[in-house]
């Protein structure tokens, strides 16, 4: 009996001490419904995670500028092909290579690189206007994102309107079942872009046709000479290619082609 009482007493002593502690500090026994807090409370750095797009001033934050830059980089190939002079330049250079009878010389990478830098040269006034009227005011905080987009689009629309033919504008407007505006400046951008691309392709083919004529004459003369000499088994292309290259170098062919393309935009 004595041993049983002693064991019961030893068991009740820790329970009594625990009850005394809980009564003295009841707040510690309640569970926090909000969960753990940061090192400086609920408003501390560990309490929440926020991304600020506005910065400390009216200027856009670095996060927003980075997001916009990445978006523009992803859209750059489409913009380059449809809204700049790149398409016309690269098509003219490709037709020039075909007129010479060359298959892959210069290769596509060289032609694309040359077309890219020629496009930057042609588009430099437009890019300068976009930077002055849209990019810099937006970075300074004087324009909102939508205002900067509209301001930057106007120089590009002006360039496309100057180089888009009325026939293509009318064609695409009729295809879209819309009424042709009285003022060209009122043409929607979704109609202007394909009209500009079609106009660029048409002009490029016209320039390519003019380039083909002298080389076609050389092919005809060489073919006639080989026929008269009875050398029908010899490919005329092998014989005419040196004469084509010689003529192209003597008249400074690359310079003439590039000059004609650049001057077609009123540049240079």
From TrEMBL:
One of its GO terms (cellular component) is bacterial-type flagellum basal body. PROSITE patterns: FLIP_2 (PS01061), PROKAR_LIPOPROTEIN (PS51257). It is found in: Cell membrane; Bacterial flagellum basal body. Its main location: membrane. NCBIfam families: fliP, PRK12797.1. Belongs to the FliP/MopC/SpaP family. This is Flagellar biosynthetic protein FliP. It comes from Nocardioides humilatus. The lineage of its organism: Bacteria, Bacillati, Actinomycetota, Actinomycetes, Propionibacteriales.
């Amino acid at each position: 009996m004595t041993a049983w009482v002693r064991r019961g007493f030893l068991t009740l002593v820790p329970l009594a001490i625990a009850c005394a502690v809980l009564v003295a500090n009841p707040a510690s026994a309640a569970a926090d419904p909000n969960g753990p807090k940061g090192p400086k409370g609920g408003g501390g750095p560990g309490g929440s995670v926020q991304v600020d797009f506005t910065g400390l001033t009216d200027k856009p934050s670095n996060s927003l500028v980075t997001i916009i830059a990445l978006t523009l980089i992803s859209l750059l190939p489409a913009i380059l092909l449809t809204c700049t002079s790149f398409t016309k330049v690269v098509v003219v250079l490709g037709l020039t290579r075909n007129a010479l009878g060359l298959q892959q010389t210069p290769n596509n990478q060289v032609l694309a690189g040359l077309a890219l830098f020629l496009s930057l040269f042609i588009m430099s006034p437009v890019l300068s206007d976009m930077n002055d009227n849209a990019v810099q005011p937006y970075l300074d905080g004087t324009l909102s994102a939508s205002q900067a987009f509209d301001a930057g689009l106007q120089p590009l629309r002006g360039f496309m309107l100057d180089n888009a033919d009325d026939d293509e504008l009318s064609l695409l407007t009729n295809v879209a079942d819309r009424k042709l505006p009285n003022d060209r400046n009122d043409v929607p951008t979704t109609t202007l872009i394909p009209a500009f691309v079609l106009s660029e392709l048409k002009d490029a083919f016209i320039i390519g046709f003019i380039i083909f004529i002298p080389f076609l004459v050389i092919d005809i003369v060489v073919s006639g000479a080989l026929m008269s000499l009875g050398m029908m088994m010899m490919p005329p292309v092998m014989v005419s290619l040196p004469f084509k290259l010689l003529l192209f170098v003597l008249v400074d062919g690359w310079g003439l082609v590039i000059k004609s393309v650049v001057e077609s935009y009123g540049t240079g």
